[in-house]
Amino acid sequence: MQNTDEQRYWLLELLAWWEGSIHPVQLAEHWQVSRQHASKLLSSWNTRHPGALEYLSQEKYYRTTTAFNPQLISGDVVEYLNWSTLGIQPRFATDAERHQPLPHEILSHPARQVTPQLIRPLIRAIREQRRLDVDYISLSNPSHEGRIIVPHHFVNNGQRWHLRAWCEKSQDYRDFVLSRFRGEPDLMDHSDKGAAQDLAWSTQVTLLLQPDPRLTSEQQQVIEQDYLMQNGQVTAPRPKR
User: Which conformational region is residue 75 in: left (phi greater than 0), alpha (psi within -120 to 50 degrees), or beta?
Assistant: First the structure.
């Protein structure tokens, strides 16, 4: 399947799975094709997955059946909510057909000052495994401090971006907060300190999380249901790299 088709069918599955029905006009704008072509693609998908969708001729849309088995979406409702709150409207849809964004509020993290002049040398250093001369500040050293590092990964912990890198001053691999770099780094020569030598980075650790035992059994059940725990425990997912 072409990558473009996978992207198109991802949206088809997302809508069908979470909304229970799908109209060709919903897909035409997002797929950037005509309504007729969207209908053909829908029919083609339905032919590959017989019985997954049923067409209601009077209403002119498809309804999900119990045989629907999504292959491209994650099944996590966050995936749908992220899409559904964008509020993108098909320009030729009728009022009844328009995709209305769900009422929502999003609490954003404060913006952090990270310039292209910082990121561009970091990208080159990561791709070419090169040393960088950088200025970095921290709570323990709030004044500009020169360091030579060899970065190998950008890391997002859900709140802010970090940089994983070898630090020549510390003689160890460290995590650096991206917004604490200052100025423009200077690219230097090649280094043998890459991700493969970062043992802490490459070592996978499995964490089993469970509700606080100080909670009542009813309170623990609330936590277990929130995080889909089995036998009172949940395995922390591995980071995506």
Answer: left
